[in-house]
């Protein structure tokens, strides 16, 4: 065999081997079996999982996770007030309640502030109410689930407007905290989401 034919044969064999290697390499990349390309693929998958988790958290973390107690709220159409034992709030923990009216559910919370006064406010404010997220307690503060602003417990029911929890009138009669239904209904504006996006 001549030297020229030998070189051409070697070149052809090398070209076929190169084509086969390229095809195998492309197939491995597409199938995800290429050892070199596994890290980027895993990184992309993990990134997608973290992004999806972050989106889920952002969408759901702000939503009120407070359990609203309706057991102590009288739903009778003849009732004029709701009452709670004063000692229920001795632990300084905010308790969330809901009054189910005819066409809207009005949410509010009650807590004993650090100065020993039992306070009540709607679970909404003048600014963030359209988000429908309300407040949660963090130590001695109530925190807006929508904007993150913090409000000292001693200012609940004292300061109003802006992002402050909207005050709810209440009174103490003997060993009972009393809230008139008519005052609860004053908060209807904060929970009427008809037409809100």
Protein model, in words:
The protein is an alpha+beta fold and 197 residues long. The chain has 3 helices and 9 strands, in the order H-H-E-E-E-E-E-E-E-E-E-H. It has a 3-stranded antiparallel sheet. A 3-stranded antiparallel sheet has the order 2-3-4, with no helix packed on it. A 3-stranded antiparallel sheet has the order 5-6-7, with no helix packed on it. 23% of the residues are buried. About 12% of the residues have low confidence.
Largest sheet: 3 strands, antiparallel
Total DSSP E strands? 9
Average of the residue pLDDT scores: 76
Q: What structural class is derived from the secondary structure elements?
A: alpha+beta
Radius of gyration: 32 Å
Keywords:
29% helix, three-stranded antiparallel β-sheet, elongated, Rieske Iron-sulfur Protein, 3 helices, alpha+beta, 197 residues
Summarize the structure.
With 197 residues, the chain is an alpha+beta fold. The protein has helices at residues 3-31, 38-61, 181-185; strands at 81-85, 95-100, 105-112, 118-122, 135-138, 141-144, 150-152, 171-173, 176-180. It folds into two domains: 3-61; 81-190, Rieske Iron-sulfur Protein, CATH 2.102.10.
Protein topology:
Blueprint: H1 3-31, H2 38-61, E1 81-85, E2 95-100, E3 105-112, E4 118-122, E5 135-138, E6 141-144, E7 150-152, E8 171-173, E9 176-180, H3 181-185
Antiparallel strand pairs: 1-9, 2-3, 3-4, 5-6, 6-7, 8-9
């Amino acid at each position: 065999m001549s030297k020229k034919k030998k070189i051409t044969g070697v070149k052809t064999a090398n070209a076929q081997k190169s084509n086969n290697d390229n095809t195998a390499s492309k197939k491995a990349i597409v199938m995800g079996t290429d050892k070199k390309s596994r890290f980027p693929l895993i990184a992309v998958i993990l990134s997608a999982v973290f992004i999806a988790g972050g989106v889920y958290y952002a969408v759901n973390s702000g939503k009120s996770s407070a359990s609203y107690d309706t057991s102590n709220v009288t739903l009778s159409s003849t009732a004029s007030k709701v009452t709670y034992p004063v000692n229920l709030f001795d632990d300084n923990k905010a308790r969330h309640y809901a009054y189910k009216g005819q066409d809207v559910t009005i949410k509010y919370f009650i807590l004993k502030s650090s100065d020993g006064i039992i306070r009540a406010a709607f679970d909404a404010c003048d600014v963030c109410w359209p988000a429908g997220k309300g407040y949660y307690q963090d130590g001695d503060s109530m925190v807006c689930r929508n904007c993150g602003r913090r409000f000292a417990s001693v200012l609940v029911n004292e300061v109003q407007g802006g992002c402050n929890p909207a005050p709810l009138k209440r009174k103490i009669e003997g060993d009972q905290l009393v809230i008139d239904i008519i005052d609860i209904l004053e908060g209807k504006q904060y929970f009427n989401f008809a037409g809100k996006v």
